[in-house]
C-alpha cells in the first residue's frame, strides 16, 4: 500500500520502488513509530478531532501490533515502503476505517522526525551506560596500578616518570567528556516535532504539549519548517560519537604499541587476541586494531550527514532519508566497539617490571635532577644545562643518572651531594608530583574516588 497513491495513475517502477524504499533500515524504529502513534492518537481523542472510542481502539490496536512484532507472531513486511506505511497498513487491516483515522493532523515528515529522535534518545542512553562501564573498568585498573612506575612520553620519546594508573585515568577523562557531549546532544533530541505535519502545521485544534509530555520530551519545535527539516541532532550525535572513536582509537594505538615486543608493557588475554595462519609465535591485538580501523566508518558517517544536509532548501527533502543509515551505523559501530573493548581492558595485565625498566633507562628523572639544583638556589637554566651535561656523560659511560658516581656529578656542578640520589629515585619522583592533576599515587586514588562518585550520582 502506498500512502500517496491517490494522485498517481501508474504503479511505481519496480526499480524506482526499491530505490525509494527505506524499510530495510527504518524498520528498527517500529517501537518508536508505535509509541509516537499512540501519543498522537491519544491527543486526537482528547482534543475531539476523532472520537475517544476510535482513539482507544487505535491505541489498543497499535499495542497489539507491537506485541505481535516483539513475540515474532507478526513479521515486518520488507516490501512495504517504510515502517510508517507498514504499521498504518497493518492497523487498517485490523481496525478498518478506524485505523485510517490515525494519520489525521499528521504527516510522515513530522512522524519520521519524531521516530528518529525517540530512537536516538534511547541509543544515546545506552551508549552512556556503556561508556560508564568502560570508565569503571579503567578505574579498577588504575587503582590496581596506581603506584606502577612507567615512562610518560612526549613525541613518543621517554619524558618524565608517571604511573600506569595515572596514564589510564587520562582516558577516563576523555570518556567522561564523551558522556557529557552525549548527554548534551540528547537534550536537544528531546524536542517534539510532532504536529508540524508536512511543513505548515495543521488547521485541526491539536495540543502539541500533550504529545510532548506523553512522549517524555520537554519542549516542542517552535517552527514547523524547522521541525520537519532539522537533523542537527543526528549530526551532533555523530560528532560526539566520532570523538568517542577518536579516544578509543588513541587508546587502541597505545595498546598495540604496548603489546609489541619493543615495549612489552601489557599482555592481553588470549580471549581478546588472535594468531597468525603461518607464524605460530604471533599473538595479535586484533580487537584494538579493528577498533582503531572502525573509527573511519564513524567519521565517514558524520561526513555523510554533513554533506546530505549542507545544500537542502526548506523544508523536507527525500535526501534526508539518507540520515538513518549513517547515524544508525555510527551508533551500532560505537556500541559494538565498546562491547568488545571494555572486557579487553578488564582482562589486560600490565607487565610492571618492563615498565619500570623502561623508566629507569630513559633519563626521565632528568627534570627532577635539575629541580634538585634549583631548590639549592641555582637558576633553573644553569641547572638545566648541568643536568644535560650529566645525561651526555651517562651516555658516554653507559650509565644512568642513578648509577653515575657522585664524583662525576661534582665534576659538573659542586652543588651536588649524596641527596641527589634520593631526589632522582623514580618512586620519589612520582610520589612528589602532588600538584593537582599530577601522577602521585595519592592523587590517582583520590581521582578514582571522585570519578566513581560522579558515576554513582549520575
Keywords:
single chain, 458 residues, mainly alpha, two-stranded antiparallel ribbon, 6 strands
Please describe what this structure looks like.
The chain is mainly alpha-helical and 458 residues long. It is built from 20 helices and six strands. The protein has helices spanning 14-20, 23-26, 30-46, 52-71, 83-95, 97-100, 108-144, 164-189, 208-214, 224-229, 232-259, 286-309, 323-346, 352-360, 366-374, 380-397, 406-412, 419-423, 426-431, 441-457, and strands spanning 149-154, 157-163, 191-192, 219-220, 266-267, 349-350. The strands form three sheets. A two-stranded antiparallel ribbon has the order 1-2. A hairpin with a 2-residue loop joins strand 1 and strand 2 (157-163). Helix 4 (52-71) packs across helix 5 (83-95), helix 8 runs antiparallel to helix 11 and helix 12 (286-309) runs antiparallel to helix 13 (323-346). The radius of gyration is 30 Å and the shape is elongated. The chain starts with 13 loop residues before the first helix and ends with a helix. The mean pLDDT is 94.
Amino acid at each position: 500500500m502506498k500512502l500517496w497513491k491517490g494522485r498517481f495513475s501508474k504503479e511505481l517502477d519496480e526499480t524506482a520502488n526499491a530505490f525509494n524504499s527505506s524499510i530495510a533500515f527504518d524498520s528498527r524504529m517500529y517501537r518508536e513509530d508505535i509509541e509516537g502513534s499512540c501519543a498522537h492518537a491519544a491527543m486526537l481523542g482528547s482534543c475531539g478531532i476523532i472520537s475517544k472510542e476510535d482513539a482507544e481502539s487505535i491505541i489498543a490496536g497499535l499495542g497489539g501490533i507491537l506485541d505481535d512484532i516483539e513475540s515474532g507472531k507478526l513479521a515486518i513486511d520488507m516490501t512495504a515502503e517504510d515502517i510508517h506505511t507498514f504499521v498504518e497498513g497493518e492497523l487498517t487491516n485490523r481496525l478498518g476505517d478506524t485505523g485510517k483515522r490515525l494519520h489525521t493532523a499528521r504527516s510522515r515528515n513530522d512522524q519520521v522526525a519524531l521516530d528518529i529522535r525517540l530512537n536516538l534518545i534511547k541509543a544515546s542512553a545506552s551508549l552512556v551506560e556503556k561508556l560508564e562501564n568502560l570508565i569503571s573498568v579503567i578505574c579498577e585498573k588504575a587503582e590496581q596500578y596506581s603506584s606502577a612506575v612507567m615512562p610518560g612520553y612526549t613525541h613518543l620519546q621517554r619524558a618524565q616518570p608517571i604511573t600506569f594508573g595515572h596514564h589510564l585515568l587520562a582516558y577516563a577523562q576523555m570518556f567522561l567528556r564523551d558522556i557529557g557531549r552525549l548527554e548534551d546532544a540528547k537534550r536537544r533530541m528531546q524536542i517534539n516535532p510532532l504536529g508540524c505535519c508536512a511543513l505548515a502545521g495543521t488547521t485541526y485544534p491539536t495540543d502539541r504539549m500533550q504529545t510532548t509530555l506523553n512522549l517524555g520530551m520537554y519542549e516542542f519545535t517552535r517552527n514547523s519548517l524547522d521541525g520537519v527539516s532539522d537533523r542537527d541532532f543526528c549530526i551532533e550525535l555523530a560528532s560526539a560519537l566520532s570523538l568517542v572513536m577518536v579516544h578509543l582509537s588513541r587508546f587502541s594505538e597505545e595498546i598495540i604499541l604496548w603489546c609489541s615486543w619493543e615495549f612489552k608493557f601489557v599482555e592481553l588475554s588470549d580471549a581478546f587476541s588472535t594468531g597468525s595462519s603461518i607464524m605460530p609465535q604471533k599473538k595479535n591485538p586484533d580487537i584494538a586494531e579493528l577498533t582503531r580501523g572502525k573509527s573511519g566508518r564513524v567519521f565517514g558517517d558524520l561526513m555523510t550527514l554533513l554533506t546530505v544536509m549542507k545544500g537542502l532548501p526548506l523544508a523536507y527533502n527525500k535526501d534526508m532519508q539518507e540520515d538513518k543509515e549513517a547515524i544508525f551505523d555510527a551508533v551500532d559501530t560505537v556500541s559494538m566497539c565498546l562491547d568488545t573493548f571494555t572486557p579487553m581492558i578488564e582482562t589486560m595485565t600490565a607487565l610492571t617490571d618492563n615498565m619500570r625498566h623502561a623508566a629507569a633507562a630513559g633519563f626521565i628523572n632528568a627534570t627532577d635532577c635539575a629541580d634538585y639544583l634549583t631548590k639549592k638556589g641555582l637558576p633553573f637554566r644553569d641547572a638545566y644545562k648541568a643536568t644535560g651535561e650529566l645525561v651526555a656523560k651517562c651516555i658516554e659511560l653507559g650509565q644512568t643518572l642513578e648509577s653515575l658516581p657522585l664524583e662525576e656529578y661534582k665534576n659538573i656542578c659542586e652543588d651536588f651531594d649524596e641527596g641527589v640520589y634520593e631526589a632522582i629515585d623514580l618512586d620519589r619522583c612520582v610520589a612528589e608530583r602532588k600538584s593537582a592533576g599530577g601522577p602521585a599515587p595519592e592523587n590517582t586514588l583520590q581521582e578514582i574516588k571522585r570519578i566513581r562518585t560522579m558515576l554513582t550520582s549520575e
